Amino acid sequence: MILSKYRGGNVYKKNDHVTVTIRDIGNDGEGIGSVDGFTLFVKDAVIGDTVLAKIVKSKKNYAYARLEKVLEASPYRVEPPCPLYRQCGGCQIQALSYDEQLKFKQSKVRNSLVRIGGLKEDIVDNVIEPVIGMENPFHYRNKALYPVGTDKNGKIVTGFYAGHTHTIIPNRSCALGAGENEQILNVILEYMEKYHVSAYCEDTREGLVRHILIRSGFTSGEIMVCLVINSDAADLPFPQKLIEGLTAVKGMTSISVCINKENTNVVMGDEVHCIWGSPVIRDIIHVRDMTKEGWPFIGKQ
C-alpha cells in the first residue's frame, strides 16, 4: 500500500509505504522528513532526497522507515566508495557529499551547545566557525576493531557489525581504515584456515579468535596487531607461523594476544601477552613532515 497523507490521527502501520522528502539528518545519520506533520526517520536517505520508504517501526507521532527507492535524488547525493555502506553500521552518511557532511557535523555541535549547554543562539552563532575538513576523507582511522566469526557455510569471516546487530558484514577493505589493514586481515584469516584455528561463536561461547585489533601510527609508520582470544595464550597453535606472516607487513612493530574468556560484549580482557616486538607503538599526532630523528617525548598509544 502506498500512502501520501497522514491518516487523521491514525499512525502509519508497519510495512506501509510512504513518499517523503528529506529535510534534515538525525544523530545517527538517518534522513528526517514528515508527511502532514507525521515525522519519518529514514535510514540511508540524505537531505534533499524524495524517496519511497517502507515503515519498519511505527509510534504515535513518528516512525522509522527503510529506504526502498530514491524517486528524486538530492543534489547532495554522491556515489559511496564502499558498496557495503548500507549494510555496515559504520558509515551512515557516506552517500552525502563531503561538504554537506561537514555542515551536518557543525550543526550537531551548534545544537549541542544550545540545547544541552544552554548557550544563547546568537552567542554561539557569533563565535562558531566552519568545520575544517580533510584533504582526503578516507583511510584516516588509526584504530580498527574487527569481530571474527563464521558465515552460514562455516567459512571464517571478519568485517563489521551491521547496525544495531551482532551480524558480521564481511569486509576486509574498509574505506576508512589504514591501507595495511586488508593485508593484515588476509594474513590472519589465511593462518586460521590453514591451521584450523576456530572463530569464536557468541551463542555457544566456543571457538578461539574473537576480535582483531589493529593500531597504526601514520607519522611513525609503526603498526600494532592484537588478537583477542577465548583461551590462554599458550593455546594459540603455531604462533610462529602467524608471526612470520604478520612481520612481512611493512611497519609491523608489535604483535600481542589478549585473553578474554568472559561472556560479555566487552572486547578486551585484562590479560595481554606481547608475542613479538615491542608492547607499545609510538606516533606523533597533528605534526606534519616530521622524521623519527629528534622526536620529543611520545606517549603510548
Describe this structure in words.
By secondary structure, this protein is of the alpha+beta class. Helices cover 16% and strands 30% of the residues. It contains four helices and 13 strands. The chain has helices at 98-116, 121-127, 181-194, 239-246, and strands spanning 2-3, 17-25, 31-35, 38-43, 50-58, 62-72, 143-150, 156-161, 168-170, 209-216, 223-229, 252-259, 271-277. The strands form two sheets. It has a seven-stranded mixed beta sheet. It has a five-stranded mixed barrel with strand order 2-3-4-6-5. Strand 11 (223-229), helix 4 (239-246) and strand 12 form a beta-alpha-beta unit. Helix 3 runs antiparallel to helix 4. It is globular and about 65 Å long. Residues 1-8 and 292-301 have low confidence and may be disordered.
Write a brief caption for the model.
The chain has about 300 residues and is an alpha+beta fold.
Write the layout of secondary structure elements.
Blueprint (H helix, E strand, L loop, with lengths): L1 E2 L13 E9 L5 E5 L2 E6 L6 E9 L3 E11 L25 H19 L4 H7 L15 E8 L5 E6 L6 E3 L10 H14 L14 E8 L6 E7 L9 H8 L5 E8 L11 E7 L24
Parallel strand pairs: 1-2, 4-6, 11-12
Antiparallel strand pairs: 2-3, 2-5, 3-4, 5-6, 7-8, 7-10, 8-9, 10-11, 12-13
Keywords, separated by commas or semicolons:
16% helix, 301 residues, 30% strand, 7-stranded mixed beta sheet, alpha+beta, 4 helices
Going by helix content, strand content and strand pairing, the class is alpha+beta
SSE topology string: EEEEEEHHEEEHEEHEE
**Global Rg:** 23 Å
Shape: globular
What is the multimeric organization of the chains shown? single chain
**Span of the ends, CA to CA:** 54 Å
Spatial order of strands in the largest sheet: 9-8-7-10-11-12-13
Please estimate the helix content.
10-25%
Q: What is the makeup of the main sheet?
A: 7 strands, mixed
* Arithmetic mean pLDDT: 90
